[in-house]
């Protein structure tokens, strides 16, 4: 009986020790799980969702795939980038808010969407702001722009890379547009952004915000009369199948930032943050040539497919959209003049 008691006591001691070890291990596993999602302590893999509204095969999608390849390679597998095209994670505004709340997501967005957090950022997508996208990229290197990104960080968002060329936006419609007068009353799909809404109101149209994925069926059903976007995006959404008129308005030249929430990004080790930034810039450079080449290619394909292409008088459109620059009282005084002075003093 006494001997049996000793065995029972021994077994109890072993079980207790194993339980304590399991608890200790469980605590470490929890930390490791957190590391896998953010801190990567002990070399754990960090998973990053890469979200964008564009379709597979478009230049932005090719950029994202290149970014994934470079980041995973240079981090020796410590970074895992998961791609979510076609707004799979939700609308742009919703995903930005999710990122702000700590979701492990980097999203391609527009400076017009960031205007909700830092108003002056909205001017980067204002109509006919610059003569070239090179001018826009230059602006992102200035102290003025750094001040804006610092303000954005205070709101919980960080710009990971600015080196993404989205392209020149044009207008594709169900009836021909030769001048702003032809746009009166036309329902034009735009992003859910005040900058675009004000731009198309100034042109006499009725701006209709909706996700990219809804453009095709909305045109089919007559809910909208047209959409605007860079040529590869118009092709990616198959807008040319249901709208046979293209006006080369070039109303906005677009470069786009990729943005993460500071709540997530700050948990990533410094070396991996740097890899994400550097490979994001590198992927952006890779995609610039693709974007330009595909824009030229798509224009020729549109012509061959029977799309009527109209080269409009840009001065008429510029004149009509000047009012956009006085439409936002939340912008800093003389913001347009500030930007133009920066461009004039460009070294």
Automatic annotation (TrEMBL):
The keyword rRNA processing does not apply. It holds the Pfam family DctP. SUPFAM superfamilies: Periplasmic binding protein-like II. Keywords: Receptor, Signal. PROSITE patterns: PROKAR_LIPOPROTEIN. NCBIfam families: dctP, TRAP_S1. It comes from Brevibacillus fulvus. One of its GO terms (cellular component) is outer membrane-bounded periplasmic space. The keyword Signal applies. It comes from the Bacteria. GO terms for biological process: transmembrane transport. InterPro entries: DctP_fam, TRAP_DctP, TRAP_DctP_sf. This is Tripartite ATP-independent transporter DctP family solute receptor. Residues 1-21 form the signal peptide.
